[in-house]
Amino acid sequence: MTSEATQFIRRNVWTLPAGDTTLEEYAEAVAIMKSRHASDPTSWTYQAAMHGTHATTSEPLWNGCQHGTWFFVAWHRMFIFYFERIVRAAVVQAGGSSKWALPFWDYGAGGEQATIPTAFRHKHVNGKPNPLFVAERAQGVNAGLALPPPVTSSAHALSRRRFTGTAQFGGGVTPAQQFSNSTGQLEQTPHNVVHDAIGGNGGWMSDPDRAAADPIFWLHHSDIDRLWSIWSSSGHQDPTDPRWTGQHFSFFDAHGSKVEKTPADVLDIRGQLGYTYEAAPPAPAAAEPPVAAMTAMSSSSDEEPEPELVGASDTPVQLVGAPASVSFEIDSKASQVVLAQSDSGEPSHVYLSVEDIEADKNPGTVYGLYVNLPGDPSPQTAESHHAGNVSFFGVERARDPRGDEHAHSLRFVHEITALTQRLASQGEWDGQHVTVTFRPFGLIPPDRPELGHALPQTASTSEPPVTIGRVSILFS
Amino acid sequence: MSELRAVLVGLRSYAAPRGDDRNLTLLVLAAVVLAWAALIAVAAAGAMGGGTSANGSGMSGMAGMSGMAGMSGMSGMAGMAGMSGMSGMSGMGSRPSSGAAATLLGSGLALAIAMWTLMVAAMMLPAALPAVQHVAVNSLRWRRRRAAATFLVVYIAIWAVFGAVLIALAPLWSGVDGKLVLAAALAAAAGWQLTVHKRRALRDCHRPSPLPPSGRAATRGVLEFAWRNSSACVRSCWAMMLAMAVASSMMIFWMVAITGIVLTEKLATKPRQATRVAAVLLGAGALVTGASALIG
C-alpha cells in the first residue's frame, strides 16, 4: 500500500480539547450507519457482524474476528482502520470534519479515565436518543463506576519481550480462525477483561457476536491498537514469519468495496496507514514496576525451551461469581528435571496455566488470579499476590464455533516468575505447595483505586457457571 | 489455499516434532511406517499367494502372510482386510476336513482382527498423533509414556472392537458381489460426510478434557480423554473404514485415499470444504466401483 498523504491523529477521548466535536460527529455517523440497510457493508449492523453475529444467515466477511491467535492485533488493526474510514465518510456526509479520527479510551490512565466517557452513558442527549448509548452494559458502567486498575493495566502485556511464545505479547502461532487457543498477554489484559467488565452478564461487550455493536467497542480497540504500536515502537519485534506477515484478510472500505490487507501492510501505522496516536506517557510499564522490571531481567536468551508441566490440580473448579481456590503440589520428580538444567537451581520461568475452561454462557465476570493468598486478605495483600486475570470472552464460540471451525476449550497462560520470586523472599512460595485463588473484580468509585482488588460489594453466587478443568504450574 | 497451508503446517510439525515429545512422535510415526510396510508386503505377497492358493499349495502356510492372503482365495489384498478373508474362508470350508476348518476359522478370525488393527494403526494413527502429543505434553514427564501408551491402547482397542463387529457382520454381505458391496459402502461414506453428525464428530475430535497430574485420577483422566477422542474418531470415520473393511481390490489405493481424507479433515482449520470434497471423491469412487461391477 502506498503511503497515505493525510495524517490522522487518534486522540484520547478523555482529554479532547474544549469545543472538540469528535464525539458529536461520531454519534452522528453512528446514527447514519444505523440507518443503512443491514446488507450494506458500511452499515452499523454489517460492520458489527464482521466481528461476529448471532444471525443465522451470513453475508460476506461476517464472523471474521481473530481471537486466541497471533493474528489478534493485526486483524483488529485492519478492522478498525476500515471502520474509521467508513465513519469518516459518514462524518463528512453529515457536514463534519474530513480529518475525523477514531479516539481511544485510555482506561489504564485510571481515575475518571477508567470510567466510560460521559458521551456514551446517557440514553438521551438534548432530548434526542443518543446513538452512543447502549443499555446492555454491566451494572454501574453507565452510572460512571470505574474499571479497577488490575483490569485496565497494560503494564504486564507491555513488559513482554516477544510477540509469540508462551505468555508473550501477541499470541501463539495458529492458523487464521475466529477463536483459537493461544491468547497473547495484550489480548488477555486489558483486552478480554475490559470487554467482560463493560459487558457484564448478558451485555453486548462481553459477547463477541454483539460487542462491535456497542460504539465503545471501537474506542476500546483503538486503545488496544495504540498499546500494540507502543509495544512495537519500544524496541520489540513484530513477527517476521511469512505465515503471519503474508496472511490475507478482507474488509470493506468506505465505498463498500472489498479490500485486502496482510499484517505486513499494517506494521507502520503512520507510513502505511496514515494515522498516529496522540502522544502517550512514555513509560506506561511504570504503573506496575516489580513485575515488569523483574520479568525483563529474568529472561536473557531469545530461545526459551518449551515450559514443562510440574504440577496441576486434579479436580475441576466451578466459578459462579464468588471466590474459589484450588490447591495442589508441585511434583518434585518432574520439577527436578527442569531445575537440573538451571544454574541457579531455580526455574528461569514459572507459568500459571488456567486450562480446559468451558461454559455454555459467559457470565461476564472478570477474576483475578492469586497465588498462595492467605485467608480473608486485605485488598493490599491481595494485590501483592496477584498473578494475572482470567475472563471468558468468547467461551461460547470456543466451544461451539460459528461456521466451520474446530471446537476447543479456553486456556490462558500467565508468567508468574517475578511473583514467585517475590513471594519466595517473603516465605510465601516454597516451590512445592500451590494455592490458586480466583476472586471476582467489581467496578469501583473512580476516586478509590485502592479498592481494585477488593471483592465486589454484591458478589453473586448464582452466575452462569464456568468450569475450570485444570490449573497447572509450568517451569522452564 | 489457507486450508491447504494449515494441513501442510500440521504435517511439518510431524516431520520436526519439538521438545520432549519428539521421541514419542517418532515412535508413533515409526509404528505407522511399519504398519504401512507390513500391509504393503501383505498386498504384494497376497498377489503371489493368490496364485499358489489356486494350485492348492497355499494352505500349509497359514501362519504366514502369504498364506493368509492365499486363504482368502480372492484377489491379492483381500485377505488383508480380514472380513474379506473371512468371506473367502466360508467358501473354502468344505475342502479340508471339518476339524481343520474350525482351526482355520479360529486362526483366520485372529488374523483378520490382527490385520484390521494393523490397518487402523496405519490409517488412523497419523490423525491421532496430535491427541497423543496433547496427552504427553499435559502429563508430568515421568508419566508421559504411560499416559501416551494408555491413550493409544484405548484408541486402538476401540477401533479393534469396531473391526470385530464388522467381522462378525461380514457373512451378511459375503454372498453379494464384492464390488457392489464396496460401492454401497463408499456411497454410505459419501453420504455420512454430509451429515451434521459427521460435523459434530469431527469437532469432538478436537476437544480436550482435563488431565489430572498423578495417581488414579491421572489414569482416569487419560482414559476419559481417550474415550472421548477415539469414540469421536470412530463416529467421524466409521463409514470410510467400513468401505476399507469390504474392499477386496485396490486396497492400497483405498488406504492411501482414505488416510489422506482423514488426515486432511483433522488438520484443516475449517474442515467443511475438505469434508465435502471427500464426499465427492467417495461418491465418485462408489459410482466407478458400482459401474465396473455391473459391466464386469
Name the descriptors:
heterodimer, A: about 475 residues, alpha+beta, di-copper center containing domain from catechol oxidase, Jelly Rolls, 2 domains, five-stranded antiparallel sheet, four-stranded antiparallel sheet, B: about 300 residues, mainly alpha, about 75% helix, globular
If you had to describe this structure to a student in words, what would you say it looks like?
The complex is a heterodimer of chains A (476) and B (296). By secondary structure, chain A is α+β, with helices and mostly antiparallel strands. Chain A has two domains: 8-287, Orthogonal Bundle (di-copper center containing domain from catechol oxidase); 289-475, Jelly Rolls. Helix content of chain A is 28%, strand content 16%. Chain A is built from 14 helices and 15 strands. Chain A has helices spanning 22-35, 44-51, 72-93, 149-152, 155-158, 185-199, 216-232, 242-245, 269-273, 289-298, 332-339, 379-384, 395-399, 417-425; strands at 8-10, 124-125, 128-129, 249-252, 258-261, 275-277, 308-312, 317-319, 324-329, 350-358, 367-371, 386-390, 410-415, 433-440, 466-475. In chain A, the strands form five sheets. In chain A, strands 7, 8, 10, 13 and 15 form a five-stranded antiparallel sheet that branches. In chain A, strands 9-14-11-12 form a four-stranded antiparallel sheet. In chain A, a hairpin with a 2-residue loop joins β2 (124-125) and β3. Chain A is globular, with a radius of gyration of 22 Å. The two termini of chain A are 41 Å apart. Chain B is mainly alpha-helical and 296 residues long. Chain B has one domain. Helix content of chain B is 77%, strand content 0%. Chain B contains eleven helices and no strands. In chain B, α8 runs antiparallel to α9. Chain B is globular. The two termini of chain B are 40 Å apart. The model of chain B is unreliable at 51-97 (pLDDT under 50). Classes of the chains: A alpha+beta (476), B mainly alpha (296). The A-B interface holds A 175-177, 243, 247, 305-306, 308-316, 328, 331, 333-334, 337, 355-356, 401, 403-409, 469-470, 472 and B 2, 5-6, 9, 18-20, 137-142, 202-215, 217-218, 221, 269-273.
